[in-house]
Amino acid sequence: MFRKIPQSALLLALILPLAIAQAAADTLFSTNLYAKFQAKACTNCHDFHEAARDGLSFNSHGRRREVNRCRTCHTRQITGFANVADLFARPGLYTSGMGAKETCEATKKALNAEFKSDELLAGQLEKHLFEDPRVLWGIEGATANSGRLPFDKQETNLVEGGLEEWKTQVTAWIKGGMKCE
Ligand code: HEC
Ligand code: HEC
After folding, report:
1. 59 in a domain, yes or no?
2. Which atom of ligand 1 is nearest to the CA of 90?
3. Is residue 181 part of a domain?
4. Per-residue pLDDT for 21 more than 90?
5. CB neighbour list of residue 163: distance below 8 Å, 6 or more residues apart
6. Ligand found nearest the CA of 104
7. 180 is a domain residue
8. How confident is the prediction for the chain on average, in pLDDT?
9. Which residues pair with 153 in a beta bridge?
10. Cα separation of 143 and 123, whole Å?
11. Which domain covers residue 59, as residue numbers?
């Protein structure tokens, strides 16, 4: 009797639970996004003014801290940003060294999530994560200038997997309720 069950049905019975488990996992921040948020292309900038993280402004940028001078090296030609002034760094966001939960919570806190409806927060997260020139610069292949730095340097630890995968994974997390697990 077992033999009469078509093979395709058996295959489906095997694969379906796995697919469902994977879809559930994709709604968690820790599954795909944590590692991506922690790429150096993101954290080098987020750590910039953080003494405890040995941020760049305390070493290679000790003499390059003047905020009006960033653009003289990180030019439009290098960053690819339409507005050169978009390249700046701010303390108090998520940093390197944080775990998955902390990274996610700090991200939401930066957007004052506790005062916003899920709908508003989702829209703002999407806008930032899909359109901000700084984020796109940090994603492998998202722009022709991703990872490019002054003096012919290049950040190599970019968000891997490209823009489409990033969008799919961010969307799964947002649609799944932006859970910080
Ligand atoms: C050039 C520096 C820089 C890079 C590179 C950068 N960020 Fe940011 N990020 C910022 C700044 C500055 C802010 C604060 C927002 C503001 O003041 O415009 C921010 C804010 C955020 C926020 C909070 C949302 C908000 O609007 O405040 C998230 C989430 C974020 N960044 C994720 C990332 C990710 C993921 C990457 C890498 C793919 C990345 N950032 C790369 C500088 C950077
Ligand atoms: C004199 C040229 C110069 C100036 C001015 C300058 N930078 Fe840089 N920046 C560089 C170079 C070169 C690198 C490559 C790595 C290094 O030297 O640390 C770099 C790297 C960075 C990185 C690391 C990105 C990564 O993922 O590795 C960030 C973030 C950054 N700069 C932000 C800034 C900000 C913000 C300012 C202004 C407050 C600024 N820079 C001013 C030359 C400059």
Report:
1. yes
2. 12
3. no
4. no
5. 136, 139, 141, 142
6. 1
7. no
8. 95
9. 149
10. 22
11. 2-175
